[in-house]
Amino acid sequence: MNDALKNSDSALHPGARDELRLRVLRALESNPELSQRQLAAELGVSLGGINYALKALVERGFVKADNFRKSGNKVAYLYVLTPQGVAEKASLATAFLGRKLEEYEVLRQEIEALKGEVGSNDPDSGAKS
Predict the structure, then answer these.
(1) What is the pLDDT of residue 96?
(2) Whole domain around residue 114: which residue ranges?
(3) C-beta separation of 18 from 10 below 8 A
């Protein structure tokens, strides 16, 4: 797990903050009954980081938190993505994909350069017919 994702949301660089928000939105979309503690464990993020990210998502209108009775007298929250939240998830996913494709291209170029270096230093890599 990226150490930056374990820190508070406010301390993250924008790409990591967006990645955390995307991961939270994805997890809540698939299971709106997750508690903050369960969400933190599932995503490998501190409870405080999840709390901060959820507060930001709720304040921006991307997630709605509703009270419901889970069992007995215990009240829990149901985290539901709003239509704006679904649109934000799509936007974050698009941006995340773009960043990952850029990273992939840089890595691909580095790999090709390394293959060239290894090939040019290998005495057995001469032209063979």
Answers:
(1) 94
(2) 3-120
(3) no
